[in-house]
Predict the structure.
Amino acid sequence: MTKRLASCSCGQLTAEVSGEPVRISICHCLACQRRTGSVFGEQARFPRENVTVSGVSTEYERVGDEGGKVRFHFCPTCGSTVYYGLESLDGYVGIPVGAFADPGFPVPRVSVYEERMHSWVVPPVDAEHIP
């Protein structure tokens, strides 16, 4: 079974996952742009039972565009977001793909909030495209 380790920048907060993600997506919403400091966020979703978190996190909760709550867990030392949970998908954990620091990570299969996508961004052609 595949095992991967996501980590904050300083290494204090980690999330070890086993198995393949059930969903890999890129999100172009303005909140993801602000959270990541980039033009989109990319995340992988795993069943909660396949994720083991170690270290101390600080939690930030926000309400999404469609009204659901999202709880982001980030390192209180370096500020990197390592994992998050969506109220509507309690059985899953989202992990920013960049936290794995793995250029071989599988390609995203879904692209959401494309109406807010920067004009020069080109999502994978085979991805499901959601305006």
The first strand starts at residue 3 and ends at 7.
